[in-house]
Amino acid sequence: MCVSFASITQSLKTCSVRTNFNRKISTLAIKKTMNSFYKIFLLFSIYNLTFNISLAQHPEAKRATHWYFGNGAGLDFSSGSPVAVTNGALHTSEGCAAMSDTAGNLLFYTDGDTIWDRNHNPMPNGTQLTGCPILGSSSQASIIIPQPNNDSLYYVFTTDCWENFGAFGLRYNVININLNGGLGDVIPTQKNKLLYTPSTEGLTATYNCDKTGVWIMSHEYNTNNYVCYFLDATGINTTPIISSIGGIYTDFVSYMRFSPNGKKFASFNYGGLSELFDFKDGLLSDFVNLPDGGYGTCFSNDNSKLYFTRSGNTIIQFDINSTNIPASLIVYYDIYADNATYASISNAIDNTLIISSIGKDSISTIVNPNIILTSTIVNRFNISLDGKQSGIGITDFIQSYFNTLPPELCSDTNKKIDTTTIMESTFPNVFTPNNDGINDVFSVNLTGYEEINWKIYNRWGSELKTGELKIENERIVELWDGRTNAGEKVPDGTYYYIINLTKKRGEHETKKGFVQILN
Asked: Which of 385, 511, 392, 359 is nearest to 449 (CA)?
């Protein structure tokens, strides 16, 4: 049943892997049909509607194709839907991470203690890491970050656990994927590099606005200091940005996530904290103290809802767009679930939320997380693990991979959102190439330019269409009819353009943005 009331019951203490089972368990499309009126309406208000697009739109979303977690469990999203795989070498109760290349091919995965290559063998220097290495496990023991603008280097960040009192702290390891015959290896001088100690168990990451770098967030123990590091093409900046905000983390057990668009941040600490913030340029602000929460923490793919899982049988939702977020609380208590049904929760590239179970051979999903939480969108145990078992934790990724909103444009000077150049009135953001004679072509209305060239890309960054044209007079230029250079019609979805313009007085200008196709 669902009820709208606040409940701060935080019965979480951990389980079979930990001394106290309850310590770590706080438990756990809209298909579009549009007539021509709505197509025209979308020209002016696309941001006001939610689309259930088949795959996440971030250009590196396929890096989240392969998952390994629990006791030999795994999922493969290569087909677009999760399929169980049983070839993994990982056995852990909680935090783990995996990495695929941008084509969706497995590269490696880790539990924070060991890194296994794509053949499921430990990397030569990939053992004895510090993601809770002695006893127990950490909620978010590891996360993998590809170094921006570098095809070879990957950073593996690890957090220690409460069993070690967080003594190993937050550390990083650098993998060169070209070593060991292309299977990868940890660079010996870049192994277990300390950033700070003691740390709590929470760890998450998001790209900055223009995708030139990644923010990595964690939290100190027994303070209210959120600690954020920045990784870009030059490497890791070891001087963090610290946000002293929110409550004191009096417990090591914690869980945290960025929203897929990187604008919001939520966290849970077993000391009794469930927190929500705005995030920008490494800093947290606009603290919201939430009346309920739990171990599993995750935003919906469209960034409008925040979820927690609690007590193994309860799912919690907040509406992030509400004028009173705490009052938007919805609590779904599953009367058919035991206290090991709903544990960690994570976005997936099929735009669902995946919910791990504890010691079970199947896991659950929220099939349309962008809408109001009811029992109808929760599918209990609908994904079989083919005989393998889930643990408390689930595979962690950079949260940006799951953003289903169009990318924002950023200024060149400060890497922040440039609201003055996102979209001009002469650049439409929807067209309908269905040969009905209405809005069939992506066209731009240009004044004062003499030359234009353009490129159209899909969500994976593959070039679909190119063109160039001399502009003799002020005119409407037709750029794209929804077909590739080879004449193949593309499916409905969001596509991205780069348009280079030459003004009549010789100045150059570049426009970047998105356009939606609705046939």
From this structure: 511
Cβ(304)–Cβ(298) below 8 Å: no
CA distances from residue 56 to 120, 134, 323 in whole angstroms, order as listed = 27, 37, 27
Neighbours of 419 (CB within 10 A): 10
Per-residue pLDDT, 338: 93
Question: Could you give the CA distance from residue 180 to residue 202 in angstroms, rounded to a whole number?
Answer: 31
* pLDDT for position 361: 97
Contact 71, 91 (CB under 8 A): yes
Sequence letter at residue 486: A
pLDDT, position 473: 61
- The residue among 223, 33, 51, 143 whose CA lies nearest residue 394 is 143
Q: Residue 91 CA to chain centroid, in angstroms?
A: 23
Tokens representing residue 222 in the block: 């027994």
Sign of the torsion angle spanned by Cα atoms 154, 385, 58, 404: negative
- Among 386, 401, 388, which Cα is nearest to 349's? 401
Q: What's the rounded Cα separation, in Å, for the pair 67 and 106?
A: 9
The span from the CA of 72 to the CA of 91, in Å, is 6
Answer yes or no: is pLDDT of 5 > 70: no
pLDDT for residue 426 is more than 70: no
Question: How far lies 203's CA from each of 123, 139, 161, 423, 485, in Å?
Answer: 23, 9, 12, 35, 43
- DSSP line for 449-461: EEEEEEEEE-TT-
pTM of the model: 0.72
Query: Alpha-carbon distance 296 to 24, whole Å?
Result: 10
